[in-house]
Design goal:
alpha/beta, four-stranded mixed β-sheet, two-stranded parallel sheet, globular
């Protein structure tokens, strides 16, 4: 069974998706790849403990408060995507890495492959794909939109 709830953030509504024990997705409502892989499954619009925990974490994040551990994450993706997403979880708030640095860290020869995996991250904000920038430090590609990416980075630096 899959459960869906909406969360009103300062950047617009997020769609949160969970099963009984894990958060599977967090997308901005108009984001590229929203609900990717779950388009044809039955989703119950019902609150669960996982979704409550996710919303509580988001409340603290957007309020600039200390963050409790977030719910268990279970993003659906290939083994390569999982490796990239795990790497994203190591980037501290307020800091960034380039696609090339992640490629080097993962012994991957293609920054473009890294970019593809980063762009398909189904758990926005929790898995901080917004902390990945271009080789020159400029903001590039964010499925939720560059304005949101800029806002998230500035918000984290203020903390």
């Amino acid at each position: 069974m899959f459960y869906k709830q909406y969360y009103d953030s300062p950047l617009g509504q997020l769609t949160l998706l969970a099963d009984e024990k894990s958060l599977l997705g967090a997308w901005f409502v108009d984001q590229k790849y929203e609900l990717h892989g779950f388009e044809t499954v039955s989703l119950r619009e019902e609150d669960t403990s996982v979704l409550q925990e996710a919303k509580k974490w988001l409340d603290a994040y957007f309020a600039g408060e200390d963050l409790a551990p977030f719910p268990e994450l279970a993003p659906q993706g290939t083994a390569f995507q999982q490796r990239v997403w795990d790497c994203l979880l190591t980037i501290p708030a307020g800091e960034t890495l380039t696609y090339g640095q992640i490629a080097e860290h993962l012994s991957c020869k293609s920054s473009q492959a890294i970019g593809g995996a980063v762009g398909r991250n189904p758990v926005s904000i929790f898995i901080p794909c917004h902390r990945v920038v271009g080789a020159d430090g400029n903001l590039t590609g964010y499925a939720g939109g560059l304005d949101r990416k800029s806002w998230l980075l500035a918000h984290e630096k203020r903390r």
